[in-house]
From TrEMBL:
<comment type="similarity">
    <text>Belongs to the beta-eliminating lyase family.</text>
</comment>
<dbReference type="InterPro" id="IPR011166">
    <property type="entry name" value="Beta-eliminating_lyase"/>
</dbReference>
<dbReference type="InterPro" id="IPR001597">
    <property type="entry name" value="ArAA_b-elim_lyase/Thr_aldolase"/>
</dbReference>
<dbReference type="InterPro" id="IPR015422">
    <property type="entry name" value="PyrdxlP-dep_Trfase_small"/>
</dbReference>
<protein>
    <submittedName>
        <fullName>Tryptophanase</fullName>
        <ecNumber>4.1.99.1</ecNumber>
    </submittedName>
</protein>
<dbReference type="InterPro" id="IPR015424">
    <property type="entry name" value="PyrdxlP-dep_Trfase"/>
</dbReference>
<dbReference type="Pfam" id="PF01212">
    <property type="entry name" value="Beta_elim_lyase"/>
</dbReference>
<keyword id="KW-0456">Lyase</keyword>
<keyword id="KW-0663">Pyridoxal phosphate</keyword>
<feature type="domain" description="Aromatic amino acid beta-eliminating lyase/threonine aldolase">
    <location>
        <begin position="42"/>
        <end position="409"/>
    </location>
</feature>
<dbReference type="GO" id="GO:0009034">
    <property type="term" value="F:tryptophanase activity"/>
</dbReference>
<dbReference type="InterPro" id="IPR015421">
    <property type="entry name" value="PyrdxlP-dep_Trfase_major"/>
</dbReference>
């Protein structure tokens, strides 16, 4: 059920078709090169793109900008304690700042880190410590059609095989990413989290939860895990996060803010070590690279994220978009995730081979037909992997309404109708670092 009305609005415009064609060409058929004013419905990411509540704007004005010992930091500490159950928090400028602080503190060259699936920046920060990130998703995680409640789970069998291979002494850290962004935003069950905790104890590793979308994950648990059928989202969140030794958090997701992140832990020694690294890379540990006002808004956002009305409205919006797309015959990853609908471009354009980038073709056609911006997560973003050709339509929090989604569905239906006439793309220029090519590479129609 809808949980908001608008108090402030931002004008959007749909450029003419001729203009959209010109924009695409100028952008080198890469939607990252489009200006936001050229985009009508922007589903590039759910990160830092949401609308803050009136309570958050009020907190922003009251933010305390003291360099040390800010009152806004105390508000954050108290929110992290109440909502997530951890007593120590180190703020950072955003999630990847938290990754640098925690992973830089815990890892050394040659270590192996196991995750249900590493998000891009997580993988990059682990590699930056000369450590080796290994994914252990459950079977079916990359199958767009398999129906299962927790396709985001961490595979214990996979992790055991890695540990048998490299030796427990080389695996100092295990991560569970909830929800699992790199497998279509799928949730992780509390039962799976408990088993990861046991496994971490068994091999004497630190258990970290990447909690970016912890509230959305908790909502799925209340809907799908029998043990929690009568629990609140807030209760599940505390229970699930409580199994971890430390959290990395991007406030730009379930912190409901446009900037910010943090590390949280109960471990005094780890906290002290993280603080030292924060001073070096982020700022004094009571602001960590954030303005005091943003810290204050994040403290309020964390509390709002576990309100039932908010999170039900949020996740239901994504489920409804997926259903509307399925009704008009657009192939989507099922079941839909918590922050995004993932379109199956491989199924949509069976006549295009992976090296013609069907996902990127779909991104371009969605823009050409309706000014809608999504992001490719197939052969263009992840060369040389056997991932499905997915396009993510990530929904900013508390931002778009039914009419926007109706436009997205109409646009996708138009692309579907003309799918046989669509041709592939080839890369014309790309950066030196292949892992980051989809951000800046340029393409042209074949
Ligand atoms: N971990 C996960 C699971 C993420 O999804 C992200 C960001 C980060 C860490 C890094 O956080 O952006 O605040 O530095 N995901 C965004 C996305 C960028 O579009 O999915 P950050």
């Amino acid at each position: 059920m809808v949980a908001y009305k608008s108090k402030m609005v931002e004008r959007i415009r749909l450029p003419s078709r001729a203009q959209r064609e010109r924009n695409l060409e100028r952008a080198g058929y890469n939607a990252f090169n489009l200006d936001s004013e050229e985009v009508f419905v922007d589903l590039l990411t759910d990160s830092g793109t949401g609308a803050m509540s009136d309570s958050q704007w009020a907190a922003l004005i009251r933010g305390d900008e003291a360099y040390a010992g800010s009152r806004s930091f105390e508000e954050l500490e108290s929110a992290v304690r109440d909502v997530m159950g951890f007593s120590h928090v180190v703020p950072t400028h955003q999630g990847r700042g938290a990754e640098n602080v925690l992973y830089g503190t815990l890892l050394s060259a040659g270590d192996v880190v196991i995750n249900n699936t590493h998000f891009d920046t997580t993988r990059a920060h682990i590699a930056n410590q000369d450590a080796d990130p290994v994914d252990c998703p459950v079977d079916g995680a990359h199958d767009p059609e398999m129906d299962a409640p927790f396709k985001g789970n961490f595979s214990l069998e996979g992790a055991r095989a890695v540990v048998d291979d490299v030796g427990a002494e080389n695996v100092p850290m295990i991560i569970s990413t909830i929800t699992n962004n790199s497998t279509a935003g799928q949730p992780v069950s509390v039962e799976n989290t408990r088993r990861v905790r046991e496994f971490a104890d068994e091999i004497d590793a630190t258990f970290v939860i990447d909690a970016c979308r912890f509230a959305e994950n908790a909502y799925f648990v209340t809907e799908r895990e029998d043990e929690f059928a009568d629990a609140t989202v807030a209760e599940v969140a505390r229970e699930q996060l409580g199994y971890a030794d430390a959290l990395v958090m991007s406030g730009k997701k379930d912190g409901l803010v446009n900037a910010g992140g943090f590390v949280a832990t109960d471990d005094e020694t780890l906290f002290e070590r993280c603080k030292q690294r924060t001073i070096l890379y982020e700022g004094f540990p009571t602001y960590g690279g954030m303005a005091g006002r943003d810290v204050a808004a994040m403290a309020v956002g964390l509390r709002e994220a576990v309100e039932e009305a908010y999170v039900a409205d949020r996740v239901d919006q994504i489920q409804a978009l997926a259903e509307m797309l399925e009704e008009v015959g657009v192939p989507v990853y099922t079941p839909p995730g918590g922050h995004a609908v993932y379109l199956d471009a491989g199924a949509m354009f069976p006549h295009l081979s992976p090296n013609e980038f069907p996902g990127q073709v779909l991104v371009c056609e969605l823009y050409r037909e309706g000014g809608v911006r999504g992001v490719e997560l197939g052969s263009f973003a992840f060369p040389e992997t056997d991932r499905p050709e997915l396009v993510r339509l990530a929904v900013p929090r508390r931002t778009y309404h039914k009419e926007h989604f109706e436009h997205v569905v109409e646009t996708a239906a138009t692309v579907l109708e003309k799918r046989e006439t669509v041709s592939g793309l080839e890369i014309t220029s790309e950066p030196e670092v292949p892992e980051l090519r989809h951000f800046t590479a340029e393409l042209e129609p074949i």
